Amino acid sequence: MVNGPPHFTESTVFPRESGKNCKVYTFSKDGTLFAWGNGEKINVTNVTNKGLLHSFDLPKVVCLEFSPKNTVLATWQPYTTSKDGTAGIPNLQLYDIKTGTCLKSFIQKKMQNWCPSWSEDETVCARNVNNEVHFFENNNLNTIANKLHLQKINDFVLSPGPQPYKVAVYVPGSKGAPSFVRLYQYPNFDGPHAALANKSFFKADKVTMLWNKKATAVLVIASTDVDKTGASYYGEQTLHYIATNGESAVVQLPKNGPIYDVVWNSSSTEFCAVYGFMPAKATIFNLKCDPVFDFGTGPRNAAYYSPHGHILVLAGFGNLRGQMEVWDVKNYKLISKPVASDSTYFAWCPDGEHILTATCAPRLRVNNGFKIWHYTGSVLHKYDVPSNAELWQVSWQPFLDGIFPTKTISYQAVPSDVPNEEPKAATAYRPPALRNKPNTNSKLHEEEPPQNMKPQPGNDKPLSKTALKNQRKHEAKKAAKQEARSDKSPPDLAPTPAAQSSAQNTISQSTSGNPEVDKKIKNLKKKLKAIEQLKEQATAGKQLEKNQLEKIQKEKALLQELEDLELGI
């Protein structure tokens, strides 16, 4: 355990554990308790007063989790059955941290979603068991207080924050029926109208459900394993928005391609999505699912809001080079562009100022280590693991919200003693024949610059597709009405001088008393207007078709015919 910025010295709170079988550790939500496994025991220590609280004899445990108020420690080890086929022993244990006794044991075969979900005050605890969600109250784990039963609940997420608690459940589609996500308020699960909101969709093999901090809405990323169009190797994703007031929408993403990441701001009023074929787009949306700010395109596949929600980091990790963009979200200004190559892990410090990036095994087994950054781009501390060792896990000590105040954003890089070895930008290969010639700047894709999507004061709000369609219909109707009116205008009205002067450009209606002649004049003017447009296209450099060129050649004859008709009026 290492002290955080600015010292980075080894902490005296926790004596170094040097065993080769350390596989897992975890902090409690408030950062006061620390539990780790050394291959023989699971130990729990108090970080504030350096006291060892408990030691549990659990050599095979690979997952640990504290309940939100530090009442229960949950441990999970792989489920095993005996050779004669009899059922295995329960592998999910829940321990009382005060007394050290085992409150309850369950059989939990899958590692995915192994840990029970607690509400923040621990009044409610929930588990998914055989397509049902079982709810326990006040950590009384022997009595099921409520059940949520739908045909096949695949996943559920409890809402954060205080009462009333809400739960989002996902039921996959079968036999042509769509998948759906429903929101319920605990404990109202019965009856056809019990759900607060419901959103059904096709094209979903798995979903990710993300509650905002105020528990007013859920974002659902629905993804298929295979993209039937063949456009993407990673399947197909769609993003849905569901609010507890019953509203729901599909979030329209302006660029096709995978959805890499979606994150809520801690304000709960906006979210950021990173999506589209590379170079990916990143956009901030409001609760109406309208784009607020577009960060343009770039090499990125992840987004991370700071704990206070005032800074956003867009990053390209995994198979990308580790470029990060640090943005001031209030003013939409770029603060810094550090590069953390080969990173497999990223985390904000609870103070909202420092960032941890790490290269961990088994994702990468070489160059393991971690770096502590200031958001202005300076590396404050760097630790490289010896070449014969691997780094498996690294994380900040958590703190509860509100302990660290929000500080004003600085654009000036913080001074640092650690030299930042920026990776050299790889230059594109040039064949020998071109090496002494000037560079021709050819790009594979057009990069889009960032742009503010908020309607500026004085500007009209950008219209949706439907609104634009309706506006065009409205305008067409208006034009048709005016035309009909001018057709019915009385014959004794002579055309005004202005109308005569613009006769070639506008289809103004001349009246002769003879409807046949009027019709001919109108048709001639239409043809002349079309010729005028073709001439404009030709001057703009557009290649015209043969029949279009023939039309232009007829202009003189048409003008003569029009003149004769108008003189004959």
From TrEMBL:
The keyword Acetylation applies. Keywords: Acetylation, Coiled coil, Initiation factor, Phosphoprotein, Protein biosynthesis, Repeat, Translation regulation, WD repeat. Residues 415-521 are annotated as: Disordered. SUPFAM superfamilies: WD40 repeat-like. Residues 498-514 have a biased composition (Polar residues). InterPro entries: TIF2A, TIF_beta_prop-like, WD40/YVTN_repeat-like_dom_sf, WD40_repeat_dom_sf. GO terms for biological process: regulation of translation. One of its GO terms (cellular component) is cytosolic small ribosomal subunit. Pfam families: eIF2A. One of its GO terms (molecular function) is translation initiation factor activity. It comes from the Eukaryota. Residues 477-490 have a biased composition (Basic and acidic residues). Residues 199-394 form the Translation initiation factor beta propellor-like domain. Functions in the early steps of protein synthesis of a small number of specific mRNAs. Acts by directing the binding of methionyl-tRNAi to 40S ribosomal subunits. In contrast to the eIF-2 complex, it binds methionyl-tRNAi to 40S subunits in a codon-dependent manner, whereas the eIF-2 complex binds methionyl-tRNAi to 40S subunits in a GTP-dependent manner. Belongs to the WD repeat EIF2A family. This is Eukaryotic translation initiation factor 2A.
